[in-house]
Design brief:
alpha+beta; GIY-YIG endonuclease; 2 domains; 3-stranded antiparallel beta sheet; 5 helices; 15% strand
Length: 150
Amino acid sequence: MNYYVYLLRDADGVARYVGKGTGRRAGYHNRVAAAILAGEPPPRASRVHRRMAADGRSFAVEIVASGLDQPEAYAVEARTIARYRREIDGGSLWNVLAGGEGFQGVPRAEWRVIAQAVADAKRAAGSDKLAAAKAAETKRRNLQRTEALL
């Protein structure tokens, strides 16, 4: 139960991004945007980070909920995104996905099948992919728990 859901607000107080994470994840976005502004973009800079850097200001981090397990965090993230709405849905959020389990546009009945296929493929790739296979297996188990909650 160490997950939390956070909201990034721009200097005008407008909600711009909702995410879930652990540890220092929420502050990571401001660090990446600052690196971009300094001319040192990290290799994993996303569209959101580039928009943050273009804004040129630091974003306030608001913790929406904490002390969550991963399925709970997925659910709170999806509800928070639905509340503030993405730009493509008429809202202010820069989120690309609608939040939740990460299988956007895939029927819930197929989540487990997809997660299992990914885990099997990674296992078959060899021992150097063992960590990735373990992560896929964890995701598959978390998806099962999420299904049980919904």
